[in-house]
Amino acid sequence: MSVQSTDHRQTSGGFLSRRVILASVALGALAAMALDTTLVWDGSERAASVSTQSFSPEEFGTARFPEIRNSIETRAVDAPTLAEAIAADKGAAAEKYGVAAGIGAVIPVRFTGTVGEGKSGIFAVAVDGVPDELTVRVQTGPAVNGTDLRDATGTIEFGQFKNQIEYQNAGAAINDAMKSEVLAPIDNANLTGKTVDVTGVFKLINPKSWLVTPVRMSVQ
Q: Per-residue b/e over 36-57, b at no fewer than 16 CB within 10 Å?
């Protein structure tokens, strides 16, 4: 009996020791997790710090628009020359003058023309030297659609962003920066009949219809 009791005590003692060891390991793991975890409380200085480290579309758009505008102005092709090239060979014109952007290339263009009727801030412009069957339109806001400005240089790519939402927000923010600098001074309620000088970009999908997003626009 004494031998059995001793074995029982040893077994019980070993079991208790293992439980103590396991408990200690678990507590140690929890402590390590706690040290590695940062709690951020709403309204705290730490929360503000974390917030400032996130992607800011507004800052991105403001910072990138000037270089996008400069690139477009440097590469812009006179509308009559571009229209002739597209009519001759759409693919070759896109490769020569544009930047590939999914379906269709984004092409920089410049023109002077007379503003026609508009709807929702989009106006037709009669441009001398382009074929009659070609419709040239320009976006004047308040809504500016598309990501042509974002895609115009080929230097802003999806892989530079965390996800598709950030990528889309970047395009919208560049449009907003353009609106603030280019379109804000323009009274598009009284634009019909005026002569405009425009430099901008459009996506070449339909060769007979260009929807131009401007980077520089003046009213004579």
A: eeeeeeeeeeeeeeeeeeeeeb
